[in-house]
């Protein structure tokens, strides 16, 4: 009986020591976990979560505001007030009504006054994928000014017009005047899907237009965003980014494109 009693006392002591060791080990693990959370840098893969590996340059990022346009990186950008160079890969076409070819001077990209109605000078650049963003900073002269077009064609306008072929289709065509803008799609003719007046500003005006699937966002010089949806926007999306100077009649003075960009 004494022997069994002595063995029970020893096992109780060992059990108590074991519990103390386990408690110390647990506290140590908790401390390591806390210090890791507070002090260990978070890698890009850890912080990006499901967005890891999500995209190359020009990819679309969701905005926190569902009514705001998506964030789209530039693939093409040119500032003609800083350099006379056209964007890499750019091509131009001037229809017979223009007074001369598109040229860059200290005021920006423009051309001579028109010789006949519907004078259009076009500059285009092919992107790697369908256009999702177009922008331009525009200088409108005083008086009877021409307009500027920001367009995404499904195929090359320059190739079509040089070969005397019809104008390509387009799911994104924004035309800006000194006081208003109009958004159309083009499929053998123009179909208006949006438009509005905008508040005049001092100096040049900046317009941007964004696309995601069938949705278009137009951002005017005051930062006002107008959202429009149409199935032809997505169906007629194309990779040819284009900017146009347009004069409806010989009395209009051409506008100047000071900068342009696309993504």
Overall pLDDT, averaged?
A: 82
Terminal CA distance: 90 Å
CATH architecture of the largest domain: Sandwich
Question: Going across the major beta sheet, what is the strand order?
Answer: 4-7-16-9-10-11-12
CATH domain class of the largest domain = Mainly Beta
Q: Strand portion, in percent?
A: 35-45%
Helix content: 10-25%
CATH topology of the largest domain: Jelly Rolls
Order of helical and strand elements: HHEEEEEEEEEHEEEEEEHEE
Q: How many β-strand stretches? A: 17
Supply the helix-strand structural class.
alpha+beta
Structural shape: globular
Name the poorly predicted regions: 1-58
Any idea how many domains? 2
Helical segment count? 4
Gyration radius from CA atoms, angstroms:
31 Å
Summarize the structure in words:
The protein is an alpha+beta fold and 263 residues long. 21% of the residues lie in helices and 36% in strands. The protein has helices at 2-39, 44-48, 157-162, 231-235; strands at residues 60-61, 71-72, 76-79, 91-94, 103-105, 108-110, 119-126, 133-139, 147-153, 170-176, 180-186, 190-197, 205-212, 215-219, 225-229, 240-247, 256-262. The strands form four sheets. A seven-stranded antiparallel sheet has the order 4-7-16-9-10-11-12. A six-stranded antiparallel sheet has the order 3-17-8-13-14-15. Strands 1-2 form a two-stranded antiparallel ribbon. A hairpin with a 2-residue loop joins strand 5 (103-105) and strand 6. The chain starts with a helix and ends with a strand.
């Amino acid at each position: 009986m004494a022997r069994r009693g002595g063995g029970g006392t020893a096992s109780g002591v060992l059990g108590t020591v074991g519990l103390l060791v386990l408690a110390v080990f647990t506290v140590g693990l908790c401390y390591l976990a806390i210090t890791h959370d507070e002090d260990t840098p978070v890698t890009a893969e850890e912080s990006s979560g499901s967005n890891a590996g999500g995209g190359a340059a020009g990819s679309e990022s969701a905005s926190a505001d569902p009514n705001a346009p998506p964030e789209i990186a530039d693939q093409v950008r040119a500032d003609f007030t800083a350099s006379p160079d056209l964007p890499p890969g750019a091509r131009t076409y001037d229809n017979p009504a223009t007074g001369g070819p598109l040229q860059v001077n200290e005021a920006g990209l423009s051309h001579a006054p028109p010789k006949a109605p519907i004078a259009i000078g076009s500059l285009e650049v092919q992107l790697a994928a369908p256009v999702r963003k177009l922008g331009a900073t525009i200088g409108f002269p005083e008086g009877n000014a021409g307009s500027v077009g920001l367009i995404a064609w499904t195929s090359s306008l320059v190739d079509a017009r040089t070969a005397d072929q019809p104008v390509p289709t387009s799911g994104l065509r924004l035309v800006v005047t000194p006081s208003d803008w109009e958004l159309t799609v083009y499929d053998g003719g123009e179909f208006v899907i949006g438009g509005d007046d905008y508040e005049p500003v001092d100096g040049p005006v900046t317009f941007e237009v964004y696309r995601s699937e069938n949705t278009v966002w137009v951002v005017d010089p005051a930062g006002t965003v107008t959202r429009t949806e149409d199935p032809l926007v997505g169906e007629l999306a194309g990779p040819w980014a284009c900017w146009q100077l347009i004069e409806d009649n010989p009395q209009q003075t051409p506008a100047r494109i000071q900068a342009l960009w696309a993504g």
